[in-house]
Each structure stands twice: as structure tokens, then as C-alpha cells.
């Protein structure tokens, strides 16, 4: 936890910095991870993701999400060194194990369901809710 001069807890923990791993939310590389290699200006960053298939290029900050992961790279580091640092830090594995990645995978899975599979999910939820409602009502009756 970071502290400021007054001893209060800082609000932000993820900063736009060289070496920060970002999740690309929009564009051709949507859903991929990349590393910030340089900050162009207040709105754009230079990213490189050789391991994940993101070619080195400038991306608008509004199209990326900062992750909690960082990679030890220098300003303007070449692609080979970025790839080596990314692999040594095992960022892809750590991100895949995070709740964020699990939620993204679940969202993709739900989006790819067929009509019948959606129907089956609905029926399972109905049965689950019926059981929960019954147990809740039993507990409510015993308390009253």
C-alpha cells in the first residue's frame, strides 16, 4: 500500500508507466495483453506484445485497461528484450489465473452458447432458485 505525505492511503495503484502490462479492450488486438514501451503523450502509448501477437504500435489510452502486472523493461526497449522479460515474468500465466481473465472467458463462453444451451442454463437456474427459495422459506418459518 502506498502512503502519501499525510499518511493517507493513495487511491490509485496502477499507473501508466513503462513496463506496465495492459489489456487491449478495443480494436484489432481486442482481448490481448501488451506491454507499455513508451508514453507518446497524455493520450497515447507505444505498446509491444510479441508473445501475445500484438505488433509494436501506438494505442490510445482509452482503448486499453491497465493491469496489476509490470515487466522490467526500459524506455523504447526492443521487441526481443520485451518478449524475454514478458516470458520471464510469466505474465500470461498470471493473468490467465486472475479473476479478470476468468470473467472474460466466461463472457465469451456465454456469448457462444446456442439457443438450446441457453434454455438449459435457464432451466438449471430455475431449479436452483426453487430449491433456495424453499430452504429460505423453511428457515423463515422456523424463526417465526
TrEMBL record:
InterPro entries: Rib_uL2_dom2 (IPR014722), Ribosomal_eL14 (IPR039660), Ribosomal_eL14_dom (IPR002784), Translation_prot_SH3-like_sf (IPR008991). Residues 55-129 form the Large ribosomal subunit protein eL14 domain. Pfam families: Ribosomal_L14e. Gene3D superfamilies: 2.30.30.30, 6.10.250.2270. GO terms for cellular component: cytosolic large ribosomal subunit. One of its GO terms (molecular function) is structural constituent of ribosome. The keyword Ribosomal protein applies. SUPFAM superfamilies: Translation proteins SH3-like domain (SSF50104). One of its GO terms (biological process) is ribosomal large subunit biogenesis. Keywords: Ribonucleoprotein, Ribosomal protein. Belongs to the eukaryotic ribosomal protein eL14 family. This is Large ribosomal subunit protein eL14. It comes from Arion vulgaris. The gene is ORF73041.
